[in-house]
Design goal:
The protein is an all-alpha fold. Helices cover about 80% and strands about 0% of the residues. Helix 3 runs antiparallel to helix 4. It is built from 4 helices and no strands.
Length: about 110
């Protein structure tokens, strides 16, 4: 599979996880830290894209990392607060979300 097709496949998975995490209600044991991390990484990239669109300028790699870390962390916090995951799962999801989001940076 060419690299761009592989990247696109992961984006689709992350978007599906983002949608699933956002629409479920109540505490769901099925929301694993992997699902939360995938959804958070999508939210992080979405935040960078929205920032670039709003400012009309490309952001630096460092700024993109900062935006992604903040957006991923906020997403994980929101899911944990509404879904009831424990602190360990929360920290694990944040770490994985940050790593996934940073791996999507192409520059």
């Amino acid at each position: 599979m060419p690299h761009h097709e592989h990247h696109h496949h992961h984006d689709e998975e992350a978007e599906a996880a983002y949608n699933q995490a956002g629409v479920q209600t109540g505490h769901k044991a099925t929301l694993s830290h992997e699902l939360i991390a995938a959804a958070a990484s999508f939210a992080a990239m979405k935040a960078v894209n929205e920032h670039q669109k709003k400012s009309g300028q490309a952001v630096s790699h460092e700024t993109a990392k900062e935006i992604m870390a903040a957006a991923a962390g906020a997403f994980v916090d929101r899911v944990v607060e509404t879904k009831g995951h424990d602190f360990f799962d929360q920290q694990k999801a944040k770490h994985e979300a940050k790593a996934r989001a940073e791996s999507k940076l192409a520059y």
